[in-house]
Amino acid sequence: MFDSTATATGTLELATPEGEVWQDEVPVALRRLTPEQRAAARWSEGHLLIVAGAGTGKTTTLAARIAHLVDTGVDPSRLLLLTFSRRAAAELLQRAEQATGRAVVRQAWGGTFHAVANRLLRRHGPALGLDASFTVLDQRDAADLLALVREENAAAALSAGAPPPPKRSRRAKPDLAASILSRVVNSRTPLSAVLSKHYPWCADQRDELRVAFAGYTARKRAHHLLDFDDLLLCWHALLQVPEVATELGRRFDHVLVDEYQDTNALQAEIVLGMLGQGATLTAVGDDAQAIYGFRAATVRNIIDLPDLVGADVVRLEQSHRSTPPLLALTNAVAAEAAERHEKSLWSERPGAAMPTLVTCADEGAQSAAVCERVLDHFDRGTPLRAQAVLVRTGHHSDLLELELTVRNIPYVKYGGLTFLEAAHVKDLLAACRLAENPRDEVAWFRLLQLVEGVGPATARRIIVHAGLDTSGPPEHVTMRLRDDPPPLPSAAGESLSGLADALDDASSSRIVAVPADQVARLRSWLDPLIAARHGDADARLADLDQLTAAAAAAPSLERFLVDLALDPPASTGDLAGPPHLDDDWLTISTIHSAKGLEWDVVHVIHAADGNIPSDMATGNADEIEEERRLLYVALTRARDHVHVYFPLRYHHRKRGRDDAHGYAQLSRFLTPAVLDHVEHAGAATVPADETVAIGAGASALAAVDVSLAALFD
DNA sequence: GAAATCATACTTTTT
DNA sequence: GTATGATTTC
User: Fold this and answer.
1) Any idea which nucleotide's C1' is nearest the CA of A565?
2) So what's the pLDDT on residue A171?
């Protein structure tokens, strides 16, 4: 599909004539690049798509290109760099800075789509009628607000005499409803199409959802709230306002987009809009590593790009990361993909260690095997921080974490949003948001229910009573709450005025508002309630201490909240900074969070069907292909060694007796052709005399086969 | 009528 | 460990 290779290759030769003298005059920024990388970095013929296989030096090349642009006179502040995570943006700019030796690189605009949207909207929002002091709702808050609206709609329908909903509630759960809406927005596809294609079992709820979505949108607008999708949507809308579009279109000379294969339809339109008339686009990506389909990303973006904007294509196929035996494996996995672009990575790196498939008796044996191999590599000179354990879902590492703790092996876990999801953390953040924006209805709804004797119904009454649903001056809200309290039990009334006092004292509209003091004031109200509510108060308050410390380091409460929403701590340790500089620790990460990173040694655990691919993602062929790419991404993170672990037996905790167990099947992606490139280790086998049950995710047919095999014994 | 309590099921991946 | 739903309690 990228058939413009010929063009690119031709130009590539032009750009780097063999044996020409300028080799000696190559600027520092480009000196250590391979010819193909250098061609991409120096490209000056218009829009460019760099198809960069895993480990081919994508970051190096992009950083070199930035450096080259700056060296050749482009004003850094006219560079826009859109990346997938803030971490990636920071690293890219840092490396470009190193390459040029010029600090001015820092003036480039860099960040995630969402972070840049936030920045632009604070400035240009008013052109849309958007209050520049909007609050950013994270995923969770957004789902809460949507749920709130749906509750109200349901209640209203009931009182209007509509038939009560069927007893067994088949309404989509809040999270599901939120993801449906998100897909509609990000894929720019009508609700009915999204429902029939991705959520057919919810198709009958179209009317309810449509009303809910409309109400939710209206509510957000009224209260100056933007969720993640709104950030993109409003950015897109800015580009429809002629004057702003013209200004933004002239604002940058170069737009560089990383991980283009994981952009969605909305983001693609935004990129095109930002190009305006004169800016040049550089997109980097690898269709073989597209793993964000669940977030409405579409590989079509990268495939269609060359034709759409007339971009030339440069491919990077030399891996500077992995050894040949590892590439043999990863190429084999990629080759099994249903739809595939001919691409075969090669490497000049030395190293002959074969990847291993370690078959373990059960999960416990797997944890032990991982620890042993980790320590083995450690003893041979690979520090823990050069090793990583990759998992499909956060909880896959639960048992391993236990084992690591027992053995005193330090680790940091990335991925999963657990910290910000904990109830007490959300409580404190809700309080902070209220100090910032007293009209944040979701935050009110949450905090009010902390008061003894106040439940959903009373909370809603108070909100209406205090006029939160009107847009009066915000500072009067707490006043109304205190001076004109709604009828309540007296104890609740006291606690309520305590809350109003705390919010007033902590309010950012105070002349001198220091985040540390603001948070401390809020906690003086909140801490006792948390202590009373939860048994493990100490641990929870310790979490809040971490949050408080992080807030204290922020320039303002507003910045603290926005940063937290746009760039949530990847691990609990993140808030407090990395443990100690001289410490060494193992990384545990979801495969998604491992994107773009590399380690000398990579351990991929739970390579059983049902886990990789996840049972939750085998609904259709596209999803399964995405799971295959996920395995590909995991395996291509390794430089020297890959160990894949397969526990034979799983305990079923859910159903029946505690000791029930079943045998799993090896991941369907590890086909015989793939296993050709793997060394087998671990001696675990299925005992012949045991009854064989269905393993995690084994298909019905496979189960039949396995039971048959047992009968044949 | 609403809140508190209890029982049960369900848990992907992330900006 | 959390979120939802049914049940009991206020």
Assistant:
1) B15
2) 72
